[in-house]
């Protein structure tokens, strides 16, 4: 756009008679401008709207809308003599002339394939055409076909494009406390010849009473895997059923063992995401995400998954494909999704956590982002959203582990490996209130079991300790309510019931979690958010494993772990957000004998 146009716009006097730029000759241009000027001087005998009596001033929505079109599509280049004569607000006739010029210019650019018109600009065009229909008719514009012209733009404006969007996170943080958390495991162990309390029993006592001949070789192997998962040195395991002949079981089963100190060095790390969004029709999107990072999870540093950051990514800063999926409409009410890499169920379903869901600008803690029952095997598969009127949306998805889908071996592939099959119903009784009900059935192979999405205690994540396959039914209720303009209240409750999938072993586990959150908006400035989260991290409330001759029972009355987070999201500008905050994990790993864990973070997010 020429410097003259910029000067004209900044002076709030866009001479929209610039239709002449596209009308043919200089003489015709001058005649049309004179005609517009004479119209603008005429008295209006009768009006149907007070707005018709007014000129279009720089403060009007229409002025701003047309100015955006001028800047985006170079609709107006000036009078033939190089002036704008525009030291005043526009008459409605001048404005209508400029609107017609923009409409013609955009049509030309689309037909030549040199421009893409955004849906927002099309909506602005439609509204302007409706508002200035009478003036356009006076100027000789084809008013009867203007609506069709806008529809033509909507239907034909698109050419295949790829847009780049990016996000970079710098994180300064660390974990603090005394000793690493120990896992709380068993309430009792039932062996042939005795029922032992794990707080007092020793390996030697077990060997004194157990009849090894009653334990099958299959059971011995399963027990061996189970106890190795608990942390017993495999080299010390006996030939019988996976136990050594000395040592104290309480070190492994009751969480009372001496532990190392928490790794509490301050770290500085990063994550980079580049989204390549390609559209072929203007209504679809193929997303290809490239990702790299070195933000280490704090689970190893603290001994508990509840201490993990919500944005940890550690692939050594090697560039990987983080997501690859395609979203497209099917008719007017259905949006479909097909993904090959990294597509999570929360990419399809609304997690109903608007101020904390995002890893780049939401909760600092992994648990605090959204209900952990959304986390499970995912990556590749398909799903859809179906709008059932204005208030209800039904969604469904089938997702398989993207590490399994390309493997033709047994217990892999699209349908025989780890998977999630889920559905959700969203209900919006009002524009500022939303509730959702979630259900998912999952299967996870031995070694891949994770019932809480790495947000809970050790035994809530995998009560089989990598030794057995598990199927589960997962239920969630979520809600979010924007109260007024400055306060949002939300929360969730999640429940998982799981069964062991093995011909030689039976067992069942129940896991619960809940949370409430609050977001105070525009605290200290527009766009800033003060966030608070409090909840019970996933807790194994009951569980048992029956190996046949030996049964392991989990403690139904174990302690509850809680997480509290406080953060302040400061919007430095449209592209930079700084979020200092901290969260605390109380009674980590469902054990009040464990030390409290504190994680502090200053997350700086650059978006472009």
User: What is the CATH fold-level name of the largest domain?
Assistant: Porin
Query: What is the overall pLDDT average?
Result: 80
How far is it from the N-terminal to the C-terminal residue, by CA?
24 Å
Specify the helix fraction band: 10-25%
Q: Helix count, per DSSP?
A: 13
Shape: elongated
From the helix content, strand content and strand pairing, which structural class follows?
Answer: alpha+beta
Q: Which CATH class of the largest domain applies here?
A: Mainly Beta
Low-confidence blocks of residues = 1-30, 39-53, 78-87, 207-213, 233-258
Radius of gyration over C-alpha positions, nearest whole angstrom:
32 Å
Most strands sheet: 16 strands, antiparallel, barrel
| Total beta-strand segments | 20
- CATH architecture label of the largest domain: Beta Barrel
Q: Which homologous superfamily in CATH is the superfamily of the largest domain?
A: Porin
Short description:
The protein has 608 residues and is an alpha+beta fold. It has helices at 3-10, 26-41, 61-73, 92-112, 119-131, 133-138, 143-156, 203-209, 217-230, 250-253, 299-302, 345-348, 458-461, and strands spanning 161-176, 186-191, 194-196, 267-279, 285-295, 313-314, 320-330, 334-343, 379-388, 392-401, 419-430, 433-444, 470-483, 487-500, 506-521, 529-546, 551-554, 562-573, 576-586, 597-607.
């Amino acid at each position: 756009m020429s410097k003259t146009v910029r000067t004209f716009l900044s002076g709030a006097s866009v001479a929209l008679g610039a239709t002449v730029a596209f009308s043919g000759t200089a003489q015709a241009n001058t005649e049309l401008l004179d005609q517009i000027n004479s119209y603008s001087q005429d008295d209006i005998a009768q009006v149907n709207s007070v707005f018709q009596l007014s000129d279009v001033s720089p403060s009007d929505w229409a002025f701003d809308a047309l100015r955006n079109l001028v800047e985006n599509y170079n609709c107006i280049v000036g009078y033939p003599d190089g002036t704008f004569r525009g030291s005043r607000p526009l008459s409605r006739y001048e404005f209508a002339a400029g609107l017609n010029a923009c409409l013609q210019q955009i049509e030309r650019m689309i037909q030549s394939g040199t421009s893409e018109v955004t849906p927002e600009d099309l909506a602005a065009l439609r509204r302007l055409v409706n508002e200035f229909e009478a003036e356009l008719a006076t100027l000789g514009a084809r008013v009867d076909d203007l609506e069709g012209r806008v529809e033509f733009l909507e239907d034909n404006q698109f050419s295949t494009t790829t847009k780049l969007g990016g996000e970079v996170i710098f994180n300064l943080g660390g974990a603090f406390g005394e000793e690493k958390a120990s896992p709380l495991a068993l309430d009792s162990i039932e062996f042939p010849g005795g029922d032992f309390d794990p707080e007092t029993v020793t390996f030697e006592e077990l060997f004194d009473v157990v009849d090894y001949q009653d334990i099958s070789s299959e059971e011995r192997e399963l027990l061996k895997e189970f106890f190795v998962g608990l942390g017993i040195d495999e080299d010390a395991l006996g030939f019988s059923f996976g136990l050594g002949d000395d040592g104290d079981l309480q070190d492994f089963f009751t969480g009372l063992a001496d532990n190392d100190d928490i790794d509490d060095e301050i770290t500085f790390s990063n994550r980079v995401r580049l989204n390549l969004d390609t559209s072929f029709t203007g209504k679809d999107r193929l997303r290809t995400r490239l990702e790299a990072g070195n933000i280490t999870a704090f689970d190893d540093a603290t001994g508990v998954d509840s201490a993990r950051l919500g944005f940890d990514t550690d692939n050594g800063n090697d560039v990987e494909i983080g997501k690859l999926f395609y979203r497209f409409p099917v008719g007017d009410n259905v949006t479909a999704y097909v993904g090959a890499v990294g597509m999570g169920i929360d990419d399809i379903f609304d997690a109903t956590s608007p101020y904390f869901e995002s890893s780049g600008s939401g909760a600092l803690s992994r648990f605090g982002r959204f209900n952990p029952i959304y986390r499970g095997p995912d990556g590749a598969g398909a799903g859809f959203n179906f709008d059932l009127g204005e208030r209800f949306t039904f969604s469904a998805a089938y997702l398989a582990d993207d590490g399994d889908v390309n493997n033709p071996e047994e217990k892999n592939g699209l349908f025989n490996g780890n998977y999630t099959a889920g559905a959700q119903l969203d209900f919006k009784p009002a524009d500022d209130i939303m509730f959702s009900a979630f259900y998912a059935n999952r299967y996870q192979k031995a070694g891949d079991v994770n019932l809480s999405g790495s947000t809970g205690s050790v035994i809530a994540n995998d009560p089989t300790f990598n030794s057995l396959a598990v199927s589960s039914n997962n239920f969630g209720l979520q809600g979010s309510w924007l109260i007024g303009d400055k306060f949002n209240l939300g929360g969730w409750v999640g429940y998982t019931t799981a069964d062991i999938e093995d011909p030689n072993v039976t067992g069942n586990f129940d896991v619960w979690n809940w949370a409430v959150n609050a977001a105070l908006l525009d605290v200290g400035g527009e766009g800033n958010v003060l966030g608070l989260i409090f909840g019970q991290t996933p807790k194994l409330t009951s569980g048992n494993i029956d190996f046949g001759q030996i049964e392991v029972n989990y403690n139904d009355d174990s302690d509850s772990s809680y997480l509290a987070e406080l953060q302040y999201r400061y919007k430095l500008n449209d592209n930079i957000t700084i979020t200092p905050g901290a969260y605390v994990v109380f009674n980590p790993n469902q054990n009040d004998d464990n030390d409290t864990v504190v994680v502090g973070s200053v997350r700086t997010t650059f978006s472009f």
